[in-house]
Amino acid sequence: MDTDTLPPFVAQALDYLAQGWDIAQGWLLSPAAWSQFAILVVAYGLAVVVSRMAVPRIAKVLTPPADNQSALATARRFVLQFLPLLLPLIAFVLTGVGEQATRSIFGSGEVIAFGKRVFIFIAARIFVRDILKVPFLKLLGKYILIPVAALYAVGLLDNATLFLEDTRVQIGNIGFSLMAIVRGVIAGSILFWLGGWSNQQSADYIEQQEIRPSLRTLLIKAVEFLIFGAAFLLLMNIMGINLSALAVLGGAIGVGLGFGLQKIASNFISGVILLLEGQATVGDYVELDGGEQGKIVKMMARAAILETFDGRWVVVPNEDFITTRVINYSDSGSANRFEAPFSVTYETDINRVPDIVERAVATHKDVLSEPFPPDCELRGFGESGVDFACEFWVNGLDDGEHKYTSDILFLIWNALKDEGIEMPYPRRVIEIKGGMPGQD
Known about the structure:
Elements: H1 8-28, H2 31-62, H3 71-80, H4 86-106, H5 110-131, H6 135-153, H7 157-166, E1 168-171, E2 174-177, H8 178-207, H9 213-239, H10 243-258, H11 262-277, E3 285-288, E4 293-299, E5 303-307, E6 313-317, H12 318-323, E7 326-328, E8 336-344, H13 353-361, E9 375-381, E10 386-394, H14 404-418
């Protein structure tokens, strides 16, 4: 067949097929090859027998009691996961012993070398199928590790590596090979997965420490920045990208975008100041000059998210917390004062009302005696009755899950009713001039 007219990759594939056929013919017609095939079969059979005998015994020794959560027990459980690899590893070792014998007798061991590579491929497949449990790592093993092991088993890994190294991509002054891209994808996936995992572990550890919530959030963000920054620099080094070229490019981009990103930089710095000062942190209920109010549920690099009592989320730039007036209803150690207005009829002995109401309001479980106990005040003389208001202090807000004013008004109503004190109805005096209609 004339391969000159075929596409290069087709011609290359046909060349590999021809080489494979020549190798297969040589093996089929060679007594040394047949002896090596026999050694592979015997080695695999012995590996099956040994693994079936050894795995149950090893598992029995390594398996700790179910209630044992010590570091040693955790390590033993970790080792137990790798027992499925025992079969291909034993076969690999036994085949290596047979390889030494065939090379000393026949001077060749290509068939056994191929068999050893096949056992490595089997081990990689078992590792991905039975041992890896994390979905991301399982996906990476399925589409990266197993294909690489397959190429290594058939002896094409070096050729594939050479092809990827020779194929280069140029972007401006930065050039890198396809192998660098492959290494970057693999290393980047692993590095940033490890970064996410270690960041979560660090965040969980910091959350357990008894430190100020705002400082805790700042530490979590700082650790996250350090972890992923280190992962990025390491990835650039693995890919072989010159960081000095990136520095020049980054400087040019920074100058070009600096004016357009002033607000973002301002919000980022404001967020750091907020976390350091701790004047507003996650869990606080705040009200800004612009009318935005709600509970802070998340503080990010650029903005904070407020959740209102009706379930809406309001995104507020961090800069607004620094440059405008902010009312924090939930500042640590503070209480809030509310008042419940009511009225009584003019026939009431109003001198009795304050004592009756204050005693009733003080029975509420959330009403505080400090900084001040409940205080019933006379507010004025209305058209229909005498107006009072009872001031009371609580730790919390009169909205959402708490209905303090409503509870207090119920207490006032019941207390006044028990004392025979009535609340007024609207009263109007109507004067009819000229007599009633229809009268002579």
